[in-house]
Protein 1
Amino acid sequence: MLKDPSTKYRPFPPVHLTDRRWPSQVVSRAPAWCSVDLRDGNQALAVPMNVGQKLELFQTLVKCGFKEIEVGFPSASNTEFRFNRRLIEENRVPDDVWLQVLVQAREDLIERTIQSLAGAKKAIIHLYNSTSPAQRRIVFGMSKQQILDLAVRGATLIQERLPRLNGSEVRLQYSPESFSATEVEFAKDVSEAVMDVWKPTPERKMILNLPDTVEMAMPNVYADQIEWICRNIKNRDALVISLHTHNDRCTGVAATELGLLAGADRVEGTLFGNGERTGNLDIVTVALNLYMQGIDPKLNFSNLNAVREVYERCTGMEVPPRQPYAGELVFTAFSGSHQDAIRKGLAEWARNGGRQLWDVPYLTIDPRDLGRQYREVIRVNSQSGKGGVAYLLENEFSIELPKDMQREFGPIANDEVDRLGREVSAAELKEMFWREYIERTSPWQLQRFETQARDGVIQCKATLLRDGQPIQITGEGNGPLAALVHGFSIARVPRFEITHYHEHSLGAGEEAMAIAYIQIKAGNGAARWGAGVDTNIELASVRAVLSALNRLNLSR
């Protein structure tokens, strides 16, 4: 890299707009959306989609609610042309969906494009030619006037052929390609020259698409360009101002959102941002950004995982795990503090029955709204804490650890996960819990336990194994556990007391297992938790006492 990059690169010139208004505007409704997955997205693939794949993705886009879909560049190849014809001839396009096709300002390409649309119910013909200084100088070797004349000729050739689409509802769209790198005054001149040919009206509007074809400046500059056009172009009320941003500076979403503030009406983009170089605008992100602000995006991503699966299968691309909203890990917390905050936020939401506004820490949107599950939210690795461990055990296996027990088991589980050096599943956490508490059978193990009541006092008889040797214990108290503790004291086991007790069912029905959690405290102040499982809650509690004893090791 150069020590002084200014010797090779220059800052992008600002737009002269001293009284810009977009910073004080608020987006309050969704724009019109146009998916360009099947054209712009497809041309960016190393292996373009075949007709079958394009059909599947087209159907998915329709299910998501797109009413405008750019289906291809019919003059570019036979595959593109055949796909267009198949959609129309097999009546695969819903009555309220517009097929958009792209074409350069060349007569042979325009002729082929018109042929591809015969019989379409609704069609958008998208004409473009590049207008930036670099394109004029390097690619075309044309002056401004020659570029303007090229656009006018393309518009005229389309206008002359429209009668051949009699019976079709047609909209016209023009793009001064590389708009964001073009002088705004010249972009206005070219666009108005096309308008003079097509003569749009407020009742029959023309789409003026202003693409950020190669992102070269901060998104506020693009917003200035959009506002300047909106305020200076003639017959603004006869235009639908459309945005088409790319992501070269990784600010395509920001540029689109600021462009909407600046007055745009429509947005073109792709699912998950697939496109050339660093990609197109990610429509999913912009739409769900609106949704999480309480605005209906007019698109349906309630089963986002299914949309992602179709996209990945058809395009061969993969959605990164941290891609906003759609990535595998975007609703996942590994950090212990994050897990604790999310768990408490979800608990508050559940207590209130979901009647309040969504306000769960670290989750800007309810994963269930997108067809995701809460079990995806909290996952456990060596960075996790007790809250995440407790959440997974409760949500996957109904194991509701008392808070003090969470503090004890959390570090135990964390040490094991750290040793493994990877993420662990809820099933693995359960195995750890079972080994540490339920399967602790040394030195004490239960063989038999009976109780009877006499004069308001509970008497117990227990047959236990201590280091494999049978031992009989009898005791009495105001309950079965008190009687058991008394029995241990008679058997000269160092004294201890039960300090916490909690139990619940692990299922439903007569054969449901019960689980008990018990903390005991020795005379020296040492305390340990134990847990026991049985179909009989009394026996589960006895097993929990033995589990705690085994962990505290008071056998001698």
Protein 2
Amino acid sequence: MLSSKEIRQRYLDFFAKRNHKVIASASLIPEGDSTLLFTNSGMFPLVPYLLGESHPEGNRLVDSQKCFRSGDIEEVGDHRHNTFFEMLGNWSLGDYFKNEQLKWWYQFLIEELEIDPKRLYQTVYVGDEEKGIPKDEESIRILQEIFGQYGIAAGVGPDTTGKGDFGPGVPVDFDKVRIMAYRDKNWWDRGSDKTGEPGGPDSETFYDTGRSHDKKFGEHCHLNCDCGRFLEIGNSVFMQYVKTEDGWKEMKNKNVDFGGGLERIILAANDYNNIFESDLFQPLIRKIGELSHKTYYQHPKEFEIISDHIKAATFIVGDDKGVAPGNIGQNYFVRRLIRRAARFGRNLGIEGIWLNELAEIVIDIYGDVYPELVRNREFVSSELKKEEEKFAISLEKGLQKFEEFSADGKLSGVDAFNLYQSYGFPVEMTEELVIEKGISFIRAEFDEEYKKHQDLSRSLSAGMFKSGLGDVSEETTRLHTATHLMLAALRKVLGDHVTQKGSNITPERARLDFNNPEKLTSEQLKQVEDMVNGWIAESLPVSFEEMTVPEAKEKGAMGVFESRYGEKVKVYKMGEGDTVASYEICSGPHVSNTSELGRFKIVKEEASSSGIRRIKAVLEK
């Protein structure tokens, strides 16, 4: 059996030997996107480079990226979905293309991991006459050559030009068919109508789990069928085209973006029945069994939800930009994960406060690969304990409110959402209670209220661009520079435990979130103000240099040290000689001298979430 560490490292080493630079996982808390709450793919942190920006490490890259997909929360419990996962990725930025990518990927699967090639299948792009893009015959030819090396005839099955979930609607002989073409499942672009946008076909790899087809997902099985027989384990995106005023045209410099789910690759390499049999989940499964005195095979859904959700919550809270549980945006999802795990634990009969015990196991599993979890261990444990204690109390209150709201024999969607939002009352529990008590309840009304809340959460994340900036105007740049000085002053006044936990900077004001257990006194706030204004008055020069993360750490730079390798970053210094106010890793714009900032003034200090304080500040000319 191959362990997760072996597979992860073999993948990195395989591509490193092929002149790829190993780069670090980016934070789960994204920068540079106005709509994304969490990093949800390996591609996201590299979008600027896929769009043409030069990467400091070159044009061949490989990594394992932490990812969280909030949209999969309800999917967990089917043996193959999880919200937190690692995406193994390799990229070619205008270098190699389809031939090398597909051959290397299959070589890794078959020769490095020894996966039976007879259990591997591939999809390609069927083409689109309206776009003027032909079927991806080049990938088909390469794939047939690859399978031929292993004595396998790779026949091409019937095309799917309609909805990919439905497939071609005819029987498929998978002893003969190895490749199938789809339209909506095998085209990638960002959904923008702007000229200059990239796009291209992608080619997905599937592993045959050997499960029987379930006809509730359609009369005939196919590679993209939801019955679970075929499991996607990797996807090669070929950024081959660019949108012009005259339609899609071939790009001069083509890119490759590959992503493969580590958890699913582990399943295929070891021929597991599901992803939860791997060493990334089994220690958690065993602990849940000890706590509940029940077995995974008796209650697979509960065990899978608890182990997935606590892992995701641990990674989000334990990120160096860690997010604590709360009611809005990212904080809301953390709260939902923790409370949903606790609720399913109660279904198993687990009593007391126990989720932090599972978080410790998550840290033990991943700590040597993602050391930020170890750095933030205390914060993770503290936040999980507090949230679970709150939920235990609110659950009792929620039950009382449920009785009040449903006294007339019916429960409105608004009241059900109030139970969910104000008391952390899971809607699944609400549904169970209304059935038990014979109360009228329309789930669609709750879903409507929930959607309104989701839309609000998403809108609150809008405007978050590079380094938390709302734009790159002169005023925003000045406030961004001042925010660096504010963080440096907070560390001097409060202590070195203070780190940035988030920021949002507009032309009107700067907002900085940072960890501190107590509200700041008026004296402390004045000290911070005076210190920042002192540095502004000293007219300190602002400069930067590029260096590797180890070099930055060695020189004492502040920042989120996500990299374990040699990736280059920008380090900004404010001051020189014996007077250096701030020395920090950052990718955003800055003024050239602190004298350009004006007078710094704190306008508000408040709690952002448990253990996190928030300061809003302005610059007066």
Protein 3
Amino acid sequence: MYRVTFDEKDTIVRIDRELMNPETVSWFLDLVNLARALKDSRFADDREKMFARMLGFPTGVMLIRDPAFNKGTAFTEKEREILGLRGLLPPKVHTMEEQILRVLENVRRKPNDIEKYIFMISLQDRNKTLFYRIVTDYIEEMMPIIYTPTVGQACMEYGHIFRRPRGIFISAKDRGRMPGLLRNWPYKDIRIIVVTDGERILGLGDLGADGMGIPVGKLALYTACAGIHHALSLPITLDLGTENEDLLNDPLYIGLKQRRLRGAAYDDFVEEFFLAVEEVFPRALVQFEDFANINAFRLLEKYRERLCCFNDDIQGTAAATLAGIYSALRITGGRLQDQKFLFLGAGEAGLGAADLMVSALMASGLSANEAREHCWFVDSKGLVVKSRSELSGHKRRYAHDCEFIPDFPSAVEALQPTAIIGVSGKARMFTQPVLEAMARINERPLVFSLSNPTSNTECTAEEAYKWTEGRAIYTSGSPFEPVIYGGKKFVPAQGNNVYIFPGVGLGAIACRARQVTDEMFSVAAKTLASMISDADLEQGSLFPPLPRIREVSAAIATAVAEVAYARDLATVPRPDDLPAFIKSLMYDPKYKSYV
């Protein structure tokens, strides 16, 4: 990775170094050996320090303050001596395992989840390797802290708990200089970008620039759940203003205090952003996150064939939902074409899920119109039917020739669905009468309460089991503790997109796909459903346990890459052993020896 040129007196006259990922530090061992080979070994340590600085490797305080390289008290005696750390650290050398014990002890003593979130994000700012080791090994405990449901509260309080900037903020004032902003990012080989404009954060609405917590959290899950190295990822927030009056009046709000850009000005800004990404990070996959309905669908349609991109709220949620349906049908013994799905909420998540279900139904032999007859929607105004003239284009696809029904409970009674799917962001809409009706209509009703955070869930796990006499097949978007009902223990697994998007992203990156297609999300759903054991289903879990998430992501990545190769969308040759190649790309957070 570097070449050292000597003169006839063995004096170094030039050092050439190729561009390399700053996270890759194995070269330093060769550097130390080089220094030791010099004739005058009395000054070897000084020369090693000098070479480290010349090659851009941090030393001393700068090393401790660099979260990508810092190991804290785990630096060895030799590393402390050579890298100028002697005296800057306590004398005790700890193992990573001992450091993990310290972190867990501190996290678990925090009084609430937002304090735990602040502690873990602060750890990420100090020591990335330790942070990702803990999140990877304790994913069940850590995911609710670093992502849903706690990330919702963190975004709502973002300006008040702000410690240190993360990612790139591109504001409405940055027109004409976006490539320069992107080049300010220290890592140059970016393979995945998660971008939001903050207008529809979870079910919480317009949080503007405070929505940065979402792309930061998503990318942490990419690393923990799919092994995509954190140096390859970049969170971005497009700050185009906000309509949130509380934020506009908050002196601690971190974003622009102006109304949102709309219309042509918004579109021109987004177009400039994507041109900048194509120029600066041409190999990056872009994931849209938490854009409002008015922009999400049309931006995806506009860019999906031009760039390698996808919308997790539309496509990731769809695949997770479809996987849950496949799993539930293994319990009921039913067929997909015999189901009737009633969605509460007709936004990105619901319409995206219905579109993917229609694709799956068409694969079973139904026409597009026949397939859509299986999907029904209730929005804020009532049942989506053809007589409603105000429907948007995406809703009109699912507007049936049926009498208008004004509310969800009445729609359940009239349509008698086999499954209700909550994606409304409105809490407690699956009421006791609704769930009792579902249990009366179906022997095993499917109840998917997918809105998050927890405060927005349509019903809790306990309510679902209690009000259906333990017969509901339940999953949720936010985590719930196991429930004991009728002497049986139910363990509802969280139907979270985390089972889908990390694997899809890893697969697309591995084969350098030109596009991310709906077919890739279909195979992701089937792959995920195939990995659920009979024991999982027996206890009411429609998804594998989270500790298996890396295994799941590797399998989905392989399936996604297979689609890319089959459809001529991959831009690198297919490896002889694709599953092994995928696994070889997955970063395992461990300390490297620097000397």
Protein 4
Amino acid sequence: MVNGWAGKTLQIDLSKGKVSTATWKEEARLFLGARGGNAWLFWKHSKANQDPYDLDTPLIFGAGALAATGLIGASRMEVTTVSAAKTESHSYGNVGMGGSWAPELKFAGYDHVVIKGGANKPVYIQIYNDDVEIKDAAGIWGKGTFETEALIREELDDDDVQVASIGPAGENLAIQSTVEHGYRSGTPVGAAMGAKKLKSVAVRGTKSVDVHDPEMILELNRQLVERVKEAKKRTGITIARNRGTDAYLQGFLAGDAGVVGNYESHAWRDRPDIRREYEENYIWELYEKDIGCFGCPFPCQPLYSAPDVGACIWRCYPTYWPWKLWMTDLKSAFASTRMMTDLGMDSKEIATTVSWLMHLYSDGKIKAEDLDGVAFERGDPKPLFETIRKTAYREGFGEALADGPVAFAKKLGKAAVDYLYQNQGLTMRTFEFRAEPGTALGEAISARGNSLRATTYHVVLWEKSARDHYAGVDSQEIADSYAWSKEKFGTEEAIRATAYEGKPKSLIYEMNGAAIADSLGYCTTMIRPGRVGAPGSQFGDTSYAFAAERYTAATGIPMDEAGLFTIGERICNLERAIVVRDGRTRKTDAIPDFFFEVPVPDGPQEGSKLDREKFEKMKDEYYSLRSWDVETGLPYKNTLEGLGLKEVAAALGKQKKLASKRKRKEG
């Protein structure tokens, strides 16, 4: 008996129409599930430097190891494939999302689905327990993700079937395309499904998932509910959830997060007139209710509904990216968010691209005639809607843009290339890397790059004062946090966002922790439930002992925080091996020169920019702590073998992608 896991992977060959299964037991102990399990299956089923549109390229869906066990907050899935934005040093594409798809896959009897080959006509996959069918998708090809889900449920006569789909953008192989499940997607990997002519994967299960100690799971859930209630009281959060304004207000209150335009400003959004414009035009009147993931009593995704537009989740990033376009028209921001979700597109990637084009247009580097007559005026929603539509359907300038911002920049000319701040073929997120060395280091080194969960440096403490609905950071919590940082990382500076000292060690702690969360299927707000409040303003409980005891309750396998971190280290090293196999080195662990050369123009961190010498010293320390070669960034044979990755070490050795000498600089 396997407790916690379903114990099987499903393998589907679309070219041959063949379906088979394989056991998932020993691998489960090593890699857990979701992100970690997907990484292992990707290693097993992919080839070095594989083309993203090669039909033999694997597309892998994975459920978190603790999904469907009854534990609150563990319902996430991951999708992994070769990135459509593949460069000479970037190959790995993966995205995580919550909802109900992962638990449903476990209820059907599977932990992962590996899809290879390609159909000769549009299809979708239906998984119903042991019955797996490749079905005709002619009737839904070309449809948006909302209608696709409704039509599949209607065809299968089952409102409980969980659907992960691509929209027209994925069908047209746009690099910006996503896999959508109830608006719980993000980083673009949808083109991988489009290349296989795979519209959707629909799953429904009626089996049970055995757990080791169901009574303990109930008790741990009870404790969690009480813990979250207490945390909310402690932090004094009074933001009205029935307005769904939490992310919007936090963006202003956190102050240091979120850039305006193409890294052109910070102060603009805090101007009294701009803030008043946002508050007066905020779309709280369109709020319907909060929606949560499977089995979660803490719904955190506000659902909005607009006449003549429709309903959509509007949370977190959709309240930040309008700043990138200098926009105060939040109804247009909502409408465009819904449009991108329906077409299956990453709102971050599209919005950042539009901000880049607006910057070029404002500086006179491009003209409307370069962009099908569209004037990319700052603050105007029209260029956003035009970019969404043209890219999804490959019309006009969207034909080139659908091949990615790098390809489009080269077509527009040198100025466009110079103004484009990108990493691994995708645009940068809104973090101010010039003021946050730890976040910048994570962005440079992470296997995937461009990832909020995997690369963002979370254990930071912005000492924010009380403001509006925000009670400020408790002085005792500040003291406790610095004491913890000194004990854990050797210096209080490790949790100061703007400092360099202690960052490599604490970044590894966070990156390993993110790998654990993503592999267990945990929401980041639940795996460390004491950390609530405005981003970067509440430090809270940092221990992963919470996850360890829940893992043991579900699986019966004794586990502590150190044991989980060994698994996290293994997963991060496996992902490193994958990208090293495909060309990554120390030289390509980088972010654009812009962040070292151009200081922050205004706002709380005015004048800040990265110090290249200090940044490179952080890389030295990071590689040394990971037991990778400091000069090349390549892993050592004994590093991989010591983590149970002997097969991986042997393969890299044959390709001469292992560090040849054991030369280490101590951090």
